[in-house]
Amino acid sequence: MLIIGITGALGAGKGTIAKFLVEKKGFKHYSAREFITKEIKRRGMPVNRGSMLFVANELRKKHSPSYIAEKLFERASQSGKDCVIESLRTVGEVNSLKKKENFYLFAVYADPRIRYERISERGNETDNVSFEEFRKNEEREMTNENPHKQNLSKCISMADYVFENNSTISELYKKADAAINKIRKRT
What we know:
By secondary structure, the chain is α/β, with parallel strands linked by helices. The chain has a single domain (3-182), classed as 3-Layer(aba) Sandwich (Rossmann fold). 56% of the residues lie in helices and 13% in strands. It has nine helices and five strands; from the N terminus they run βαβαααβαβαααβα. The chain has a five-stranded parallel β-sheet with strand order 2-3-1-4-5, with helices on both faces. It is globular, with a radius of gyration of 16 Å. The termini are close together. The model has no long low-confidence stretch (mean pLDDT 92).
């Protein structure tokens, strides 16, 4: 059983890699975004980027920096199948999961303009922002020394495999497939 975690900036292609692993490789999908969204709705809050950050940071502060990832990893481990955990965002999450057997971290990045176009097209409730607000949100999430908060640049630097995604979906799929094949040869 493999468990792949995915990190990367907004619109970089985390969901695209997760979709590939689910549809082409038979992985089961666990999403930090879905986990947090359920909690936001339970609290009766609006589902937007501000609520996502607030609730995620509050859960990490209350329980541990790795709380969300640990919950998702626990569910994945119990499934007995290859799994993908999408959207690891804190150093605490990555440190915790990298200690686990059969865990590998993928990171994906892309040019900010390309990422903004992607999120504008997908139209999630948290993606309806101007380019300036997109960059401001990203800046806040890229570096933070608080282990309870997002530090995407550090998480990306901790990845076992890093994929540049400025091209086509099929190119990204090829990169992810090559990484999975390399991992399978090791295990």
